[in-house]
Amino acid sequence: MLNHVILIGRLTRDPELRYTSSGIAVTQFTLAVDRPFATNGQKEADFIHIVTWRQLAESCANYLKKGRLCAVEGRVQVRTYDNNEGKKVFMTEVVSDNVRFLESRNKDRNNVLNGAGQGPSERVDEKEVPLSENGSPVDISDAELPF
Predict the structure, then answer these.
(1) What are the start and end residues of every segment in region (Disordered) (predicted)?
(2) Exposed / middle / buried, residue 80 (Cβ in 10 Å: 0-12, 13-18, 19+)
(3) Residue 111, Cβ neighbours under 10 Å: how many?
């Protein structure tokens, strides 16, 4: 049997990083993936929930932002839970074991600073730094960045 998914799309919001009670990092975000066809002349997109775990979760939380293009590889998972009203809710998501950042952070920063961005641009804070588990800045050289 095979359960393998590869998606390319843009984040609809910043990733949400949380930690389990045992200290394992988990990140959730939604990816907008264009459909290959148009309905009534308008393109449509699917909004797919993505979940990443451990170090990949921390990397996604540190480097991905709303609007960034990325590729996600993983498997489809359907889980259920009971909501506040006692109704069973089915949740379909992609549990990712590989995420590729398809746009560099420096490219986005240069586009915003030079006014070269197309459409509404994301504001990049010059003091933005990735944080470790305890909230202190992580010392990362340019050679260690994945893009």
Answers:
(1) 109-147
(2) exposed
(3) 16
